[in-house]
Write a structure and sequence with these properties.
206 residues; alpha+beta; 2 domains; 7 helices
């Protein structure tokens, strides 16, 4: 991925807001023979760290135990536009809009059921704050078996790279026209894409 300045100079507060608003992340690890492994997981983001859990027998647990360096990616796919919205003849004007954040991380894997339970409580607090379940206790037979199959993974973030590809390479007037085209087309994500392009114009005014 190429991180042109006009796509990558995103304020850290905006990156944090974006990541906290997403529900799943992609974890990329490296197997013993160099094969990349990819998984999609719920997570808790705390700025300097990410928490997620894996099943102990998952190949990614084995990867992280031997090779703790990994990547986490969080993205939002907003859609594609046809070339003629930008140029009446040049096909290369067709493009895709997305927001992507990539974290380089070092992982710590813990299998102690007490630690796994503590992490599960953090995940539940994020994804199910309304409750509706029996309090999670590693000694409770309701949970003991499941907790003994899980591993808690804490990822220490060592580098953050962001790419918000939202037409910033185009003049504001062109982006305004594209916003109108997106709203008229009305595909499921077009409204979100239009709002994202509008955000780039507002940021430039500040």
């Amino acid at each position: 991925m190429i991180f042109h300045d006009y796509y990558a100079n995103i304020p850290r507060a905006e990156i944090d807001r974006f990541v906290e608003g997403q529900e799943l992340c992609r974890l990329v690890t490296l197997g013993p023979d160099g094969t990349p492994h990819l998984g999609l997981y719920p997570f808790v983001y705390e700025g300097a760290t990410l928490d997620l859990h894996l099943v102990r027998v998952d190949e990614q647990v084995q990867d992280l135990t031997s090779r703790p360096r990994c990547l986490v990616e969080v993205d939002e796919i907003l859609g594609v536009i046809p070339s003629y919205w930008v140029h009446p003849q040049y096909a290369g004007s067709a493009t895709a809009y997305h927001r992507t954040v990539i974290f380089e991380c070092n992982a710590a894997v813990v299998e102690d059921p007490v630690a796994v339970a503590a992490q599960q409580r953090r995940l539940l607090a994020r994804y199910q704050p309304e409750g509706g379940y029996t309090a999670l206790d590693p000694a409770d037979p309701l949970y003991r078996g499941a907790l003994e199959t899980l591993a808690a993974v804490r990822l220490e973030i060592t580098r953050c790279r962001a790419k918000f590809k939202l037409g910033q390479n185009r003049p504001a007037e062109t982006r305004q026209r594209l916003i109108g085209e997106l709203r008229r087309r009305g595909r499921p994500n077009d409204g979100r894409a239009a709002d994202a392009l509008a955000w780039t114009i507002e940021v430039q005014k500040v």
